[in-house]
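seq as requested:
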Amino acid sequence: MKKIKLTLILTFAIATAFAQKGSISGVLLDSADLKKTLNYATISVFKVGDSVLSTYKLSDEKGVFKIPNLQLDVNYRLVINAWQYKVLRKEIMLSSATPELNLGKLELSLASNALNEVVIMAERPPIIVRNDTIEFNAESFKTLPSAVVEDLLKKLPGVAIAADGSIQVNGKAVSKILVDGKEFFGGDQQIATKNLPANIIDKVQLSDDPEAKRRDPDIVAGNVPQIINLKLKKAIKSGAFGKLYAGGGPRSLFELGGIMNFFRDTTQVSILGYGNNVNKPGFNISDVMRIGGFSRTGVNSMMVNSEGGFALNGISFGGAMSGGVQQSAGGGANFNTLTKKGTKINGKYFLGYSDNFLDQLTDVEQTLGNNKLFTNSKSLQTNRNYSHNLGARIESKLDSLTTLTIEPSLSVGISNNRGDLLTSSTNANAAPVNNGTNISRLKGNDTQYNLSTSLWKDFKKAGRSVNFTLNLTQRNNLTDNFNTAQNNYFNPASTTTLDQLRDNNVNNFNINLNGNYNEPLNKVLSLNIATNSNYIDNENALNTFYKNPSNQAYDIAIPTLSETVVQSGYKTNNRASLRWKVNKDFNIQPGVVFNTIDLENKFQNSANFEQHFTFFAPQLNIRFKDVSFSYTPSFREPDIRYIQPVANNTNPLFIQNGNPNLLPSKTHQVNLNVYKYDTKRTLSYNAYLGGSIQNDGVIMSRIVGSDGVQTSTPVNEDGIWQFHANGNLSKDFKNTKRQFTVNTGFWSNFNRGIVMVNNIKSHTDNFTIGPRVGGRINLNDKIEFSESYSIAFNKSTYSDPFFADINYQTHSSESELIVRMPKKIVWETSYRLQYNTQAVGGVNNNIQIWNAAATLLFMKNDRLQLKCSINDILNTNTRRYLYITENTLRDIRTNNLGRHGLITLTYNIQNFGGKVGGKETMFRF
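struct tokens:
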């Protein structure tokens, strides 16, 4: 009932906000040449006697404009601005007798002072189009006192900001954001958008990226990246901005942290630190990437989960990556400067700590002909990790066309993990098959050194360029895994025990050289040659020891479970293609791919063998207007861990063998992409279809014994298909006070694979499709509401009756409401629902997560904020994940923090803190 009432209220609000009352229309012409229409002129609407902008529109490519949703019986003043033309003013009034007024042809004359434009400040148009530059007047788009540039950009027509902070303007990606024509904090886009306050911006200017046009003269207009230049009301030469926060709640819960940025001219320093035990990151990923400096000095690996947790370069920044409850802390600094000769220098250091507790229940249902195997397990894990990350980046312009970049980095990870696993299996008649306990302790040290250098050279001839990249990587990963296990089997009755140390030392050395050369042969043909060469020298040393009862030391070597393999040699990937520009809308780029693999594998206890393979195939890229198609072949040798002929027996119920006879896989990948942005209708839509067909792909052949022990061995198989498709349609309705976005789309996957169990091979088709719909409304930043709903249909079929078909549905819904009334109070709540139709083990299929918070705002520009939040009000203490793999259905439930409350005080320094409220703010709840 509560949701029904809320829906009715919001439906009424939307209908009231967007109901059409009256409209004016017309066409703009050049007074000296009536055949010449004035395209993309700005028509601003003011109430007579008022300088506050009511609404505005741009004329289309034919000079036509129409302004809807105007009140009746109100005197309006129209102010029409077109670049290089005199301003035209006109007063009108709509009535019930004439709610739709056509002004016909409106003539504008050329301005004599076109080069020195004069604009009356009380009537500044919200938008001015000057040749290839669009300029927005920031004062015409009202924002909250605490708003940052990103909040301002969201209100501009044609501007879309994704969840990761990336920006598109009229469907085109933004490549740079400048502040007063200069780079800010090393040219990082989101430093400016997420930290500079909106109220210091005078103008936002949009233009094409000239460098992209120079590097690719044939680039389609719709693909030209955009540059945003923020013109400030007053130039900023030095300053500081950031935020400090601290909070706590019952059950000894706490969170605290701070992030500060200091800048003076071309030098910037950032520091951050945080700690919490409330299972969330101390900062969002954008803050760490941009302010923390990771984006400027390189990110080698990234992990993000659905709960908002993330890890960069192996460092967890809070939020359990694999479920559970985590306590985390971290701190670091970033330095950025620009020398007088134009050299950019970046440096960073970061230390991270995490202590994660996981309580996981897993139910697995496996079809085996007329029988079934049900496996239930309970896993308790405590994982402690320390991570150090040190990096630098130097970018130097050797001349106006040549850039040299050098990036060294060092990362160190120390782990100490303990796990307790209880497992039991039954058959289709509910008779016990096996059970067991497995206690593991793992200590690890992972150190990685990396040096990357690149040289990019453009030439005066447009389109000609060459670049080289050299990467050197050295990684040493040392782990000691202690396992104590006892397993009971019931058919026939027996018991086994295991107490061992698995000492695994992996040392990898890699040199990678990339080269790319582009040469325009004439106006319609251009040549591209690319090469990628790898030298590898990898060692995987595995030694297994049993515990000695006499001295309690792990010193009894087990030769059958020990092996050292050294893999060394060269790999190359060479490509050449010729692009033919048929016309401005169509080009075709055929090419060839030539790969080589020459590796030597030396074993300590097994026979050595060599791998020599060559691979030759065509490739193709086609583009027609907004449609692009590509076909790309690839060739990859099996991972070294698969070819090592030693079983992994750390869990005696699930044993994995190696296979030194594996062949390289051959993959043929295709992609079809359609993207279109309709500027006039602020409508965007895209569709994507991609997939691959793989031969000699690696699958796991499993043997499931009568005792329930599962032994898997990697083998090669042909005919593995993976295809996925998605489509999106989004429509924006924006004016100065209201924004409304609706979107719909779908995603789907089709995987054709091979499952092999007990030497019975079957083709399996796994199909998933998920339509979705959503929308968001913003009423003058007083009320914001968003709703999304999706349903996923999952079905898996098998060609052999030994396996049973599986299908189920998953329903997901997410709602968010933010109310900023009365003044200085922000109310927010979110509700997430997940329901699926597949029951495994009789667990609850209906998971609901409800959060709510209220924030009190203090001081000028809302610098001080006191937030009271209640998380997981319904106390849904479990997170659930359900998926199909091979012939099994897996249902995984993990622990969570459950219902808890927090009171957090935040102080924004210089108000560079962001709009209060919503999932994208720093404080997730």
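DSSP finds seven helices and 51 strands in the chain.
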